[in-house]
């Protein structure tokens, strides 16, 4: 396994009225995963940026100060001044990143201790890969399918808004969209779309792309980034890189999120091509 002892990792988390206990668990798991990657000499240090799209700067800074972590890991907490959106906030950290690898991370994710070790090792060994996506379970141990094939509008409506009975009737279609056929035994290359809750990128790829398209305030910015990143190298699913994600569907978050979802969906399909069914 090729190791580069000068390698560095940057990571970014955008918070907006995030649950403090969940965020603290995310940060603790990140500390453990970073320490494991340093011990394996995959990286020499990591720098984590926390972008506050709300008024939690003081509380988040105090939380970070209370964390126990090695000297090879540093944190920087920054207020964005307003809720500027998911992608625009992440772009602040991406533009400043001086590293070999950059992790885009949600505040409701728990990393397994070996997750970064697995992901960074894979990227070092496979130089044609731009980014990797993990195997994901929810808080109850149920598998989440965050790698996707290019969607039709019907797929999104079924997955996000249809009643359970209708989703069951369309389970084969949804399973195909969610790539439920992916192997858990070995990596899979050429994944069309990966989720923004956990994206481990080569930093230079993100710099070449200038990060997320800030025109997406929320939703579909990860799909758009996936489509652009795939032109610079393959996206891969890596089942040995594992996380727990507590997020849910947009339809369960109220009408404001539904409106944002629909607006971003129109932007995505206008840019990349419409498929109705």
Q: Can you describe this structure?
A:
The protein is 39% helix and 21% strand. By secondary structure, the chain is an alpha/beta fold. Strands 1, 2, 3, 4, 5, 6, 7, 8 and 9 form a 9-stranded mixed β-sheet that branches. Helix 1 links the parallel strand 1 and strand 2. 41% of the residues are buried.
What's this, in brief?
The chain is of the alpha/beta class.
What is the strand and helix layout of this fold?
Layout: E1 8-15, H1 20-39, E2 45-52, H2 57-65, E3 73-79, H3 86-96, E4 101-105, E5 109-111, H4 115-125, E6 129-137, E7 143-144, H5 153-161, H6 164-169, H7 171-177, E8 198-202, H8 203-209, H9 221-229, E9 234-245, H10 255-272
Parallel strand pairs: 1-2, 1-4, 2-3, 6-9
Antiparallel strand pairs: 4-8, 5-9, 6-7, 6-8
Summary tags:
single chain, 277 residues, alpha/beta, nine-stranded mixed sheet, 9 strands
Low-pLDDT regions: none
Largest sheet: 9 strands, mixed
Rough shape?
globular
Any idea what the radius of gyration is? Answer: 18 Å
Distance between the termini: 44 Å
Mean pLDDT: 94
Number of strands: 9
